[in-house]
Write a structure and sequence with these properties.
The structure is a single chain. It contains seven helices and five strands; from the N terminus they run E-H-E-H-E-H-E-H-E-H-H-H. With 173 residues, it is an alpha/beta fold. Helix 2 runs parallel beside helix 3 and helix 5 packs across helix 6. It is elongated, with a radius of gyration of 22 Å.
Length: 173
């Protein structure tokens, strides 16, 4: 079951989201930005539902901090906000949000957007793994067939025996 972090100071919003999504997702709740960032230090959700207006850090600031942290930068973020002005939505996207839903909203709309963003994240992760594997394969192919590869192979054996360092493990791009 995918894990969602709900960050909103409104208990009614928490209750609504819990009622509509608890049977589909594993939900964690925080009530302000500071709590959310502390929770992210301990647990990484699959997606974050984030209110804009909260005491302390607002949602835009939380979003920017999530995007600035290498551990959390790729977690999808959906703003859930009563602010419906274009400038508010644009500020959310500029802060790094993946989507912006205006309250009140239909639970089916939220569920569909959550599912799509989780799928996108999974596909990005799969592609990253495939790219890394392709880089390693290309390096191995180059090292076994080119002049550079012959030089690497010539240096690798004495270096590995002298230092106990494995060439592919430490020097692959």
């Amino acid at each position: 079951m995918h894990k969602i972090l709900v960050v909103d100071d409104d208990k009614i919003t928490h209750a609504f989201i819990r009622r509509e999504l608890a049977y589909k997702f594993d939900l964690d709740a925080t009530f302000n930005g500071e709590q959310a960032l502390a929770e992210l230090e301990q647990n990484l959700p699959d997606i974050i539902l984030l209110d804009v207006e909260m005491p302390g850090l607002n949602g835009y600031e939380v979003c920017e901090r999530v995007r600035a942290n290498p551990r959390t930068t790729d977690i999808p973020i959906i703003f859930l906000s009563g602010r419906s002005e274009l400038r508010d939505r644009m500020q959310g996207f500029e802060a790094g949000a993946d989507d912006y839903i205006v309250k009140p909203f239909h639970p089916e709309d939220l569920t569909a957007k959550i599912n799509i963003l989780i799928q996108y994240r999974q596909r990005r992760q799969e592609l990253s793994l495939q790219v890394e594997e392709a880089r390693k394969t290309a390096f191995i192919a180059i090292s076994s067939s080119s002049d550079l590869g012959q030089a690497i192979n010539f240096i690798e054996k004495p270096m590995c025996s002298a230092t106990s360092i494995s060439w592919p493990k430490h020097f692959l791009p």
